[in-house]
Inverse folding.
């Protein structure tokens, strides 16, 4: 693949409140590149911007600035009915997130792919019974081995959630108040002060 599998190029999403005197109520900023297939772990407090990030990557949310390129294609320029051939967002119980249409699809370009390249799992429900976790981890690895990029967003409240991320993820993103921090391994992630504050006592149990 000549182009990076995913390029988040100076992406900004802002929300405002007020009609006449608008004030910014939330701002998400992201700028990173993933060159090749893999599994990326995502963590962060509720309301920090994780789901907004995933929606921007799949084209279901329009950025204020910047671009999302999947295999070289700006996903916000791709036909609505074909965007899930580039990136697909599974929210919690694996329902697929939908998007609003802002301009006619005939004015947009085709996806150029028949199967999603980027798979985003937003706080999947890991059932500890009957080997379900093992099945899901094998599924994530299978996607990676088929040259897909997988994001696994977890809101850890049990030690095994961190065990899962350490086992399968090859790099990590921490989202906090709309700002992203990037880490190349699990130990570096846990060493970050903001991550430690977020995880609390789970850090000690993971160590």
């Amino acid at each position: 693949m000549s182009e990076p599998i995913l390029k988040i190029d100076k992406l900004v999403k802002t929300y405002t409140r007020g009609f006449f005197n608008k004030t910014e109520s939330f701002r998400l900023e992201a700028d990173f590149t993933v060159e090749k297939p893999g599994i990326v772990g995502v963590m962060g407090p509720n309301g920090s911007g994780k789901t907004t990030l995933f929606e921007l990557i799949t084209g279901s949310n329009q950025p204020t600035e910047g671009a999302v390129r999947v295999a070289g294609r700006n996903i916000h320029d791709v036909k609505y009915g074909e965007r899930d051939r580039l990136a697909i967002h599974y929210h919690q119980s694996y329902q697929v997130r939908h998007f609003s249409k802002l301009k006619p699809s005939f004015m947009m370009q085709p996806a150029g792919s028949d199967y999603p390249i980027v798979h985003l799992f937003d706080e999947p429900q890991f059932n500890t019974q009957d080997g379900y976790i093992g099945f899901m981890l094998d599924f994530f690895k299978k996607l990676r081995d088929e040259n897909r990029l997988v994001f696994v967003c977890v809101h850890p409240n049990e030690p095994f959630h961190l065990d899962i991320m350490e086992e399968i993820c090859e790099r990590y993103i921490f989202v906090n108040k709309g700002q992203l921090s990037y880490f190349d391994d699990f130990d570096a992630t846990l060493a970050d002060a903001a991550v430690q504050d977020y995880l609390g006592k789970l850090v000690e149990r993971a160590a």
Notes: The chain has one domain: 6-206.
